[in-house]
């Protein structure tokens, strides 16, 4: 439950950044500094002003208390020009917000209010170019991942994959470039392309193949049983 709220607020933080004349933004940007690996919940870049903004989402007081990066002298505030905490309404009081940080609150209707402005850090320890590079890479990966997961989503949640004999795959034909779904055995080496008018065989060991889900004997038997029920 808590992580779902965290996920939700992370997304809201992107909308807020976008509204704040941000040209580029991404969630979960991996950064390295002072031999530490820090994942920024959200990072936003404004090119014209050469400004970077980082947002750290906190959905519980526990979460806020135990964040070592937040309370250290090399916290999120040292990474970017502006650093904010984003929380649900009423989680933190202004007095407990670490120096320099801004406080944003998101209500039940996803309205974000600035309760405290962030103080500008004029000289972040990570360069503007580096922040741009990491944010751009993360944003690009997010787009590609979204595309890929749309076409390869396993709707069965892997329920029948143990000891699977048959699999549902998505494969691109090297000849006509059509991407289609095929049911094949686990060790099948090629499949006839189903693109209209294309008579090519798709070599599964070389084509761009994504396994969507797998089916074992149990699945096949249940299917047979159901078919028999339909026929009687
Ligand atoms: Zn084809």
The total count of helices amounts to 6
The helix/strand class is: alpha+beta
Order of helices and strands: HEEEHHHEEEHEEEEEH
Mean model confidence by pLDDT = 92
Number of strands: 11
| Number of discrete domains | 2
- What about the largest sheet? 6 strands, mixed
What oligomeric state best describes the polypeptide chains here? single chain
Strand line-up of the largest beta sheet = 1-2-3-4-5-6
Ligand roster: zinc ion
Alpha-carbon distance between the termini? 46 Å
Strand content: 25-35%
Poorly predicted tracts of residues: none
Can you tell me the overall shape?
Answer: elongated
Radius of gyration: 24 Å
Helix content: 25-40%
Note down, in words, how this protein is organized.
It is a single chain. The protein has 232 residues and is α+β, with helices and mostly antiparallel strands. It folds into 2 domains: 147 residues, no CATH class; 68 residues, no CATH class. The chain is built from 6 helices and 11 strands. The strands form 3 sheets. A 6-stranded mixed beta sheet has the order 1-2-3-4-5-6, sandwiched between helices. Strands 8-7-11 form a 3-stranded antiparallel beta sheet. The longest helix is centred in the middle third of the chain and has 24 residues. The structure holds zinc ion. Zinc ion binds next to loops.
């Amino acid at each position: 439950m808590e992580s779902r709220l965290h996920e939700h607020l992370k997304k809201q933080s992107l909308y807020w950044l976008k509204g704040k004349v941000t040209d580029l933004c991404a969630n979960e940007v991996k950064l390295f500094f002072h031999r530490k690996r820090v994942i920024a919940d959200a990072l936003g870049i404004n090119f014209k002003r050469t400004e970077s903004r980082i947002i750290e989402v906190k959905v519980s007081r526990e979460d806020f208390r135990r964040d070592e990066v937040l309370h250290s002298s090399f916290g999120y505030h040292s990474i970017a020009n502006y650093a904010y905490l984003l929380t649900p309404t009423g989680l933190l009081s202004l007095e407990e917000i670490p120096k320099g940080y801004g406080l944003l609150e998101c209500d039940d209707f996803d309205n974000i209010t600035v309760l405290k402005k962030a103080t500008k850090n004029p000289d972040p320890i990570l360069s503007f170019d580096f922040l741009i590079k990491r944010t751009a890479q993360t944003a690009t990966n997010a787009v590609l991942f979204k595309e890929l997961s749309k076409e390869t989503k396993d709707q069965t949640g892997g329920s029948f994959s143990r000891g699977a004999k048959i699999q549902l795959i998505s494969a691109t034909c090297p000849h006509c470039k059509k991407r289609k779904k095929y049911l094949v055995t686990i060790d099948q080496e090629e499949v006839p392309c189903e693109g209209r008018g294309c008579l090519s065989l798709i070599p599964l060991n070389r084509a761009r193949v994504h396994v969507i889900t797998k089916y074992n004997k149990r699945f096949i038997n249940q299917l047979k049983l159901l078919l028999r029920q339909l026929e009687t």
